[in-house]
Design goal:
Four copies of one chain form a homotetramer. By secondary structure, chain A is of the alpha/beta class. Chain A is built from seven helices and six strands; from the N terminus they run βαβαβαβαβααβα. Chain A has one domain: Alpha-Beta Barrel (TIM Barrel). In chain A, strands 1-2-3-4-5-6 form a six-stranded parallel sheet. Chain A is globular, with a radius of gyration of 16 Å. Chains in contact: A-B, A-C, A-D, B-C, B-D, C-D.
Chain lengths: 168, 168, 168, 168
Amino acid sequence: MVTEILHIKNLELVASCADMLQIGTRNMQNFDLLVESAKTGMPILLKRGMSARLEEFLLAAEYILDSGNDRVVLCERGIRTFETATRNTLDLNSVALACELSHLPIIVDPSHGTGRASLVKPLALAARAVGAHGLMVEVHSDPRNALSDGQQSLDFSQFADLISALGA
Amino acid sequence: MVTEILHIKNLELVASCADMLQIGTRNMQNFDLLVESAKTGMPILLKRGMSARLEEFLLAAEYILDSGNDRVVLCERGIRTFETATRNTLDLNSVALACELSHLPIIVDPSHGTGRASLVKPLALAARAVGAHGLMVEVHSDPRNALSDGQQSLDFSQFADLISALGA
Amino acid sequence: MVTEILHIKNLELVASCADMLQIGTRNMQNFDLLVESAKTGMPILLKRGMSARLEEFLLAAEYILDSGNDRVVLCERGIRTFETATRNTLDLNSVALACELSHLPIIVDPSHGTGRASLVKPLALAARAVGAHGLMVEVHSDPRNALSDGQQSLDFSQFADLISALGA
Amino acid sequence: MVTEILHIKNLELVASCADMLQIGTRNMQNFDLLVESAKTGMPILLKRGMSARLEEFLLAAEYILDSGNDRVVLCERGIRTFETATRNTLDLNSVALACELSHLPIIVDPSHGTGRASLVKPLALAARAVGAHGLMVEVHSDPRNALSDGQQSLDFSQFADLISALGA
């Protein structure tokens, strides 16, 4: 189970029951949280800040590595641009470049990266094509009635279709 | 042969020898050029403005269609963002969404879209995965000595490798 | 009277009755229009492209100067950013920098630059403070019923208040 | 003395000697730091995230207010755009709009907002014209040899000139 860690004070509790800690996009440069999370020794999923340049993203990961924890997975989840037709702009250029520049694995979140359920499958396939090491996809039993992020969530049938398309 | 048309005064000359007219990114909202090019009846390759929203891109294509020419191919070539590690940010979200919203074919230019030769292959594969109907790739016999865009041009060997990877 | 020139074919007609030709933001890199407008010898108001860097803006002006017409006025009208609370982001940094880098006069359009009537006055005053050589403001007798751009138009009373605040 | 607070663990020490705590741009959505800083009861200077929409900026301030501390000063310090001629793009639109939407005072940092010493004075004057309640300016006895941010720092003579221009 991957759990987003928002507050340092919850770190002990969350670490006791999660398998991996996620640092969310708004906290990519919350250096306290990076360092304290790293010190748990647990694997860390670091999401790219919504306006972080690739260089800043890789440097944020260094805070975790420098704290003695090398179990870091990067996650591209879309950047903020002028385009309003999609919630964010998924930056697959940076995924391909991160594969060149860094030894760290990088996964892609096409749910936040597009904000539209219908775009999750094509962008998931594109993420694989560009070399991503994994995917993070939002799934909900009833997206229309989801409390949050329903528009970008797949239902079970759509998720099965995605898995089938990936041949996984 | 696809030839970029920059000036209306050259339209007759270019149309006499090219197979397809390209409207470049800086001219996407040059309505004179759109309409006059359309009137030649030739197929038109319309490149997305570097800061055009998808809606504006599709509306620019309407100028050509409305002039009685339905031989339009759209081309995503990267948008302008804060990211400086790549020349542009290739927006594959918009390619997938254009496939939903429009009947027009859309191709992808990963050379301008990334600005780096090493990224052309992975992004070309991603473009195909996302549903693009074609690719436009810069190739040069000797990229290091190219007069322009050498950094993003493939040499013949790299191009052969790309074609092989595409299984085309 | 300043009149926006959209189509080269209308150039003769417009030039015969206008005092100044305006090149709109979407045409800043329409090189045909720049050159043909320049050749009329009339003063040219060149609006910055909504995503043009300052360097590109100044280089577009060079097309006019290079055509033998030195009667060019630049106009900053807001750039496209991620901020959605205002229609555009008025870039007064670039106005101040243009005053350093170029001998050309530069004016500011706080109407398009903000998209909100209530912000026109403060940004007009800021434009003057930053060194702008003039202002271009939308005024309408009845903004609520304007056919376009009503939200950013001043009524006569607001315009009188602006003029008074400027001490002009 | 205003001191930037980067780490919660330093809060007690910094609070014991500073007059005001500054939350830096990278920490605008570090909710732990907002809440813990607020609880000191000290005045808080909250800098806008470099890609935060105005709405997000005002909502971040709510975390401080909601923690029972109403001594909040907002600070606009430039946003991240495609423009590379200046370090950031100072968004005076948002300053004027914040004055409409919020009761909180807002100051402007033209040093970070422009990244160029020569632009600090004109933008400081513009900030005042747009209604800003104060300024935050970097000054150094010898900017050319400053360890950081020298390019945007005023020397004493330039600072005296700024104060004189402001008539303060």
